[in-house]
Every structure is written in structure tokens, then in C-alpha cells.
Amino acid sequence: MHTTKNDLPADKRADLTQLLNDRLADLIDLQLQAKQAHWNVKGPNFIALHELFDDAAEEVEEYIDTVAERAVALGGTAEGTVGVVVKRTQLPAYPPTIAAGRDHVEAFSTALAVAGKAVRAAIDKAAVIGDADTTDLFTQISRGIDKQLWFVEAHLQADK
């Protein structure tokens, strides 16, 4: 941990940094999965899905930056390399060869749901550690991921 005048005890800052880095890996993976869908989606709903996945990727990019900056502000190091992401992500691997819009909607909605669940668990962990700021940060991200999940799942729900 780097020296800081932040008044949270160093052990709590270390625990928070680990928690933030774990979710950072999920968020980086989520953004890349959104771009994979954006680049490769095909079908009659192409333009709507193409734009939806790109919007999701842009929103997740903001979360990535916020989480990484919080880790550093606490005196930690943001760990966002590909190698770290591969080891830490909890998201299922995105199928690289799918093309149909419905398949991308299914795969990306699954990724969003897994990321959302992990972020909600992080809200509780940050609260137990005793950092309202990190709890609030994760709460904001949770709301955003849930909104993206709603937007994506709407493409599945009309068929039922």
C-alpha cells in the first residue's frame, strides 16, 4: 500500500483494494464482452443491438475508471492487465464464434447478470469493512448494470 493521509486504516484499505481489483477484472471482461457482441452481431435487429452493445461498453468503461481510481485513491494499485483479468474474472467465457443477435443477447445478458451479482456482493463486503464511499460506488455501478441488463433482456422477453 502506498502512503496516504486517507484516514481509513491500512488493513481496511488493503481489503478494499483487493475487493475493488476483483470487481475491476469483472468489469474489464464485461466491457470486452460488450465490444465482442458489438463487433460481431448479425441479423434483423443488427443496428439496434450493435448500438446497444456499444452503449453498454461505453458505460462500463466509466465504471472501470471509477473502480480503478478508487483503488489508487485508497493507496492501492489498480490491477487491470489482461493477465490479471483472465485470472480474476468471475464472468463466463464469451463464445467467440456466435453471430445471431439472440445468441449475443443471451450471452451478454448472462455476463451482465454475473457481474451484477458480484457487484451486489461487493456492496455488502465494503459495508462490512466500513467504507461508505466504496459501498456507494458499488451501489451506483449495481444500478447501472441492472439497467443495462433490463435493456438487453428486453430483446429476449418480447418472444415469450
Note poorly predicted spans. Answer: none
**Rough outline:** elongated
**Strand residue percentage:** under 5%
At the first level of CATH, what is the class?
Mainly Alpha
Category from helices, strands and their pairing: mainly alpha
Order of helices and strands: HHHHH
Helix content: over 70%
**Main beta sheet, described?**
none
- The domain count comes to 1
Mean pLDDT: 96
Helices, by number, come to 5
CATH superfamily: Ferritin, core subunit, four-helix bundle
Number of strands: 0
First CA to last CA: what distance?
Answer: 51 Å
Query: For the CA atoms, what is the radius of gyration?
Result: 17 Å
As for the CATH topology, it is: Ferritin
**Per CATH, which architecture?**
Up-down Bundle
Question: What does this molecule look like?
Answer:
The protein is built from 5 helices and no strands. It has helices at 10-40, 46-73, 82-88, 101-129, 132-157. The chain is an all-alpha fold. The chain has a single domain (10-157), classed as Ferritin, core subunit, four-helix bundle (Ferritin), CATH 1.20.1260.10. The termini are far apart.
Observed structural traits:
single chain; 160 residues; mainly alpha; Ferritin; 5 helices; 0% strand
